[in-house]
Design brief:
single chain; 193 residues; alpha/beta; globular; binds adenosine-5'-triphosphate
């Protein structure tokens, strides 16, 4: 049975940090395939700079192009909101009975994981891979159903990249090639004049 890692985010835009982690999880054998799973607008984040779902999806498609084991998943875009991770995992499992799904989260989110809806069922029925985020050492390392992934990290965020592009910096080495070209061609994240 194939194991698929579900790595969710707003990917506004997807950057080299996301892709490094995805690539590591596949190549170091934590999962067989990794699905970058696009979340619709997160009510906790400022909607201001969030590009429409279709543009973020287009960038994810470009990013995953050269990576055979990294795919994209848009299932949450058509789900009722607010969408909870457990609902996403259940729907994925129902639609793909031949696959086993594991959730990929950062050590920052792991600290508040017990507040997630049906957290215990996520651990029992799916499993959680926790990767290290700087400043957030892993707590509760021996919980059944979770595994720590010691992946090397690039300390970049989408916010950093959006701000840098708005200031006219060259972000060519911070983004997958096709994604950067798409941003430049479509003049994304530039201040409106
Ligand atoms: P923003 O700066 O807009 O909040 P972000 O860079 O944190 O964005 P998200 O789309 O929110 O990106 O990220 C999706 C997931 O990727 C989140 O769970 C986030 O913790 C994680 N992530 C963000 N930056 C990195 C990085 N450099 N390396 C690995 N994972 C990251």
């Amino acid at each position: 049975m194939e194991t698929i890692g579900i790595f969710g985010g707003s990917f506004n835009p997807v950057h080299i940090g996301h892709m490094m982690l995805a690539s590591y999880l596949v190549q170091w054998g934590y999962v067989d395939k990794l699905w970058l799973t696009l979340s619709p607008l997160n009510p906790l984040k400022e909607p201001g700079g969030l590009l429409p779902d279709m543009k973020r999806l287009a960038m994810l498609t470009l990013a995953s192009k050269g990576a055979p084991d990294i795919d994209i998943c848009d299932i949450e875009l058509a789900m009722p909101r607010p969408s909870y991770t457990i609902n996403t995992l259940d729907l994925l499992a129902e639609r793909n009975p031949e696959c086993r799904f594991k959730l990929v989260i950062g050590s920052d989110n792991w600290r508040i994981f017990d507040q997630w809806r049906q957290a215990q069922r996520i651990l029992d029925e799916y499993g959680v891979l926790v990767y290290l985020r700087p400043g957030y050492p892993v707590v509760n390392e021996h919980v059944a159903g979770m595994e720590v992934v010691d992946a090397p990290m690039a300390h970049v965020s989408s916010t950093f990249i959006r701000n840098a592009i708005a200031r006219g910096r060259d972000m060519g080495y911070f983004l997958p090639q096709g994604v950067y070209k798409y941003i430049l061609d479509n003049k994304l994240y530039r201040p409106s004049k």
